[in-house]
Amino acid sequence: MRLIFVLGLLVILLFTTACAERVEVPPAHVGKVLTQNGYKPEVVPPSKFRLDMCLLYCDKLVTLPIADFVHLERLKVFMPKDQRNMSFDVRMTGAISSGVIDHAVFGNQVKQAAGKKR
Predict the structure, then answer these.
(1) Is 23 in a helix, a strand, or coil?
(2) Rounded distance, CA 51 to CA 117, Å?
(3) Is the dihedral of CA 17, 52, 118, 107 positive or negative?
(4) Is 92 helix (H, G, I), strand (E, B) or coil?
(5) Cβ–Cβ < 8 Å for 88, 75
């Protein structure tokens, strides 16, 4: 009886110490889990969770910032007829569409990684 209790305790300790890595997808980011066979199909919203338990290969979390970004372009134009210099700023706010995240962004990362292996 004591042997079964000790074995049970060892199994419980083994499972609690071998738990998978706890990861976080920060705000204004999305993530995908990279497994041994490629990316999992679902996109992970901002959250905290544990990856699957691993023995030989451990999964990794890949995050991508999706916050809006601002770009500023300063332009100077010389108008020869009037002999005047004009300067102005063009400002743009860009965002990543949620439909593009899966195929264009993460798909491109897979192609780049495959190209580096060769």
Answers:
(1) strand
(2) 25
(3) negative
(4) strand
(5) yes
Tokens in use for 77?
Answer: 């134009």
At a CB cut-off of 8 Å and minimum separation 6, what does 38 contact? 110
Per-residue confidence (pLDDT) for residue 117, from 0 to 100:
44
**Spatial CA neighbour of 94 closest among 70, 72, 73:** 70
Banded pLDDT at 5 (limits 50, 70, 90)? confident
DSSP designation for 87: E
54-95 residue pLDDT tens: 778 888 999 988 888 889 999 999 999 989 999 999 999 888
- 118, two tokens: 């060769």
Rg (alpha carbons) of the chain, rounded to whole number? 25
pLDDT in the model for residue 116: 47
